[in-house]
Amino acid sequence: MTGLNPDMALGLAQTALVTSVGWFLAAAGWVGPESRQPLMRLVIWLFFPALIFDRVHANPLISGGGTALLYLGAGYLMIAGGIAIGAVVGRLLGIGAGVPGRTFAYASGINNFGYLGIPLTAALFDRDVVGVLLVHNVGVEACVWTIGVAYLSGHSGWRVLRNLIHPMTISLAVALAVNFLGLGSTTLGTLAGKVCHDVGACAIPVGLVLTGIYLHETLRGFNPLAQRRATVGFLLVRCLLVPAAILGAASALVTDPNLRKVMLVQAAMPAGMFTFLIVSHCKGDVALALRGTVVTSAVCPLTIPVWIEIGRRWLGIGA
Questions:
Q1: Which range in 90-99, 164-173, 209-218, 242-251 is most confidently predicted, on average pLDDT?
Q2: Fewer CB within 10 A of the end CB, N or C, for the chain?
Q3: Are 44 and 167 in contact (CB under 8 A)?
Q4: Which string of DSSP letters, residue by residue, matches 62-73?
Q5: Which residues, other chains included, contact 79 with Cβ-Cβ below 8 Å and sequence gap of 6+?
Q6: CA angle in degrees (0–180, nearest 5) for 36-39-42
């Protein structure tokens, strides 16, 4: 395993190409702004909940035990820590209070843990490590849709709880219950899993196409020199502070070799591709969230190999 890998480059190219399909559809006028909301509802209310259920309901790695809690907890704390770092940096840079500040912290604190993280992990390591990543990502999803949404919405009390009741958290709770009760291998559980597998397979490609549509509309007036503080902040959080924090935590606190490999890849990831969907759902600053995706994704072909190599040496992971 080295920092530079052809399969890694292929994973980056696939993400860019599928996203460019959405860009082309919007540029050609085949899909207009009126199409965004129905597509977003499909992604948020159907495709991603199905994907979560498919990956969790019969996953033997999270059927119980301390190891599962370790993987889940690592994913949860990674996102919580990233949002906290984003909040501090946002305040220091004067990004703004209220919606802009919360959006910046949320968007900078969440990485591209799934669509890019999964193929890159598969390219660098074996299937067992990919399995650990999928369990780890359940913890990530849990944080994204619990503490993360509560912070992003800026609500408290009952309004926080109300915001946490949505298709993804419900799907995650049901899938975990099915898994813990051992119902995933029953006839009904298997049937539900197959249906959710087919439906959930649409989540990532449709989400990336939707991202391309949003990017076309947002970037028509995009000025890389505008919002300089936010641009610098996104690069600082995602390309320097969070990678160093994740690798430092892995070095000091984690002894599980597979989890260390997962954290190595996660540390190198840019900002999440689909974060803007949740930001839009919670009435945040979508343009600001997309700026984070754009600027960190633009530099990730350079930063990913660098952090992979730094992390490999730091964590003692053999080449």
A1: 242-251
A2: C
A3: yes
A4: GSSSHHHHHHHH
A5: 109, 110, 140, 143, 144, 147, 148
A6: 150
Domains and CATH numbers, the chain: 6-315 (1.20.1530)
Question: Tokens standing for 283?
Answer: 């009435």
CB-CB neighbours of 203 under 10 Å: 23
Cβ-based neighbours of 226, under 8 Å, separated by 6 or more: none
Q: Encoding tokens for residue 145?
A: 């849709």
Residue-wise pLDDT for 263-298, tens only, equals: 999 999 999 877 877 888 788 888 899 889 889 988
pLDDT tens digit string along 20-43? Answer: 898 899 888 888 777 777 888 888
Average pLDDT over residues 63-83: 87
Strand partners, 111: 271
Q: Helices in the chain by DSSP H: which ranges? A: 6-27, 36-42, 48-56, 66-93, 99-109, 117-124, 127-144, 147-153, 158-164, 167-180, 187-200, 203-219, 228-236, 242-253, 257-267, 275-281, 286-315
Alpha helices per DSSP H over 145-223: 147-153, 158-164, 167-180, 187-200, 203-219
- Provide the whole-model pTM: 0.78
pLDDT number for residue 193 = 92
Q: How confident is the model at residue 68 (pLDDT cuts 50, 70, 90)?
A: confident
85: CB partners within 8 A, 6+ apart: 108, 109, 237, 241, 242, 245
The b-or-e profile of 164-186 (16+ CB within 10 A means b, else e) is bebbbbebbebbbebbeeebbee
What are phi and psi for residue 271, nearest 5 degrees?
-65, 155
Q: Is 226 exposed, middle or buried (0-12, 13-18, 19+ CB in 10 A)?
A: exposed
Lowest mean pLDDT among 78-87, 114-123, 281-290: 114-123
Cα(120)–Cα(308) distance, rounded to whole angstroms? Answer: 11
